[in-house]
Design brief:
- This protein is α+β, with helices and mostly antiparallel strands.
- It is globular.
- The chain contains 8 helices and 20 strands.
- The longest helix has 10 residues.
- Among the domains are: 144 residues, Probable tRNA modification gtpase trme, domain 1 (Gyrase A, domain 2), CATH 3.30.1360.120; 71 residues, Aminomethyltransferase beta-barrel domains (Elongation Factor Tu (Ef-tu), domain 3), CATH 2.40.30.
- The mean pLDDT is 97.
- The chain has a 6-stranded mixed β-sheet with strand order 11-12-13-10-4-14, sandwiched between helices.
């Protein structure tokens, strides 16, 4: 397995490791439940250095990238981020990506680890795209006290950044890119730093008593509670953005792969939906559980877990249109687990969108 620049730092903290897309990543440090609740209440940090990063320079490169996604990238304002999907020829999702427009001519692109080799081949074929992945580490700082901790560390950019914005700046004297976002539903910042500086940043963050190292297990329960899908599990190359619950991110007035097909799907309404579900007790839905409506199979669970912040099972399921409406009662799995379709996010108390007073 490949190792991130923080592998030795995790070993020193007693991390238990797991194989994630060929990377040895920490599964947990002090325990998944403890880490989950700490992120909801204070600050957790995650090593996401397995992910890919690319710098896109020039309008032709941005237009070329935009033509492969459902996003209107030239219409993105500098300093803003956009969540979108990189598509194959039939409109299936190769990967979901985040694009930050740095300035008039440059875009910073973040991709997942699983399809990274395929994404790299596609993106680096575009003149004006540089692969930064090998030399970049990513540290996510997540939790309601994240801004407070970063300001204490002279991360003054945290004073100004609104939700889903970013900048090119420095932190602890180290050049970096920063976005205000994340995968937990809490107030958070994603730090992209040179790989050889990752340990210094990680250890400096851990010097603060509010900060706890967290692993994949907590990351998964946190993201499932807020109904965030996982690339390669909740959607993939056979899934269009419509079927993945991404309709609000589709800019229909520009060309992209599979556009005509998706327009037909949208107009007919005859396509499966990805929906958020919760159980009526602590029993959790599990990946690939069959989902039934009135005894008839209507889909399957794509992600599921016990939600520590909700006290019930929580998950995502891909279901037929007849089963997708909010408040629909469903059964799943071999023992008729009772599920209810809910409006996402299932956990609604997250702080990620909180408006901040820039004078504080």
């Amino acid at each position: 397995m490949k190792k991130t620049p923080l592998f030795q730092a995790h070993e020193a903290k007693g991390a238990k490791f797991a194989d994630f897309a060929g990377w040895a990543l920490p599964l947990q440090f002090s325990g998944a439940l403890n880490e989950h609740l700490h992120v909801r209440e204070q600050v957790g940090i995650f090593d996401c250095s397995h992910m890919g990063e690319f710098l896109v320079t020039g309008k032709p490169a941005a237009v070329a990238l935009g033509s492969l996604t459902v996003a209107d990238l030239p219409g993105l304002s500098p300093g803003r981020c956009r969540y979108t999907a990189l598509l194959n020829e039939s409109g299936g999702i190769i990967d979901d990506i985040v694009v930050l427009r740095l300035d008039e001519d440059r875009y910073f692109v973040v991709t997942n680890a699983g399809p990274l080799d395929q994404v790299r081949t596609i993106l680096t074929a575009i003149p004006g795209v540089e692969d930064l992945s090998e030399h970049t580490a990513k540290i996510d700082v997540q939790g309601p006290l994240a801004r407070e901790v970063l300001l204490r560390m002279e991360g003054e950019w945290a004073r100004q950044l609104a939700y889903w914005t970013g900048t090119e700046t420095s932190f602890l004297g180290i050049p970096c890119y920063v976005t205000r976002g994340g995968y937990t539903g809490e107030l958070g910042y994603e730090l992209f730093v040179p790989a050889d500086s990752a340990s210094a940043v990680w250890n400096a963050l851990l010097d603060h008593q509010e900060v706890m190292p967290c692993g994949l297990a907590a990351r998964d329960t946190l993201r499932t509670e807020v109904s965030y899908p996982l690339s390669g599990q909740d959607f993939g190359p056979e899934t269009t953005p419509l079927e993945a619950g991404m309709e609000r991110f589709i800019h229909w007035d520009h060309p992209f792969p599979g556009r005509d097909r998706m327009i037909q799907m949208r107009e007919s309404g005859n396509y499966n939906r990805l929906v958020a579900v919760i159980s009526e007790d602590r029993r959790a839905p599990r990946h690939e559980f069959e989902v039934r409506l009135n005894g008839k199979r209507v889909g399957e669970v794509t992600s599921g877990t016990f939600g520590p912040s909700l006290g019930v099972g929580v998950g995502l399921a891909r279901v037929e249109p007849s089963a997708a409406a909010t408040d629909t009662r469903l059964a799943a799995g071999p023992r008729d687990l009772n599920l209810t379709v809910v409006s996402p996010p299932a956990y609604k108390k997250g702080t990620c969108r909180i408006k901040i007073n820039t004078n504080e």
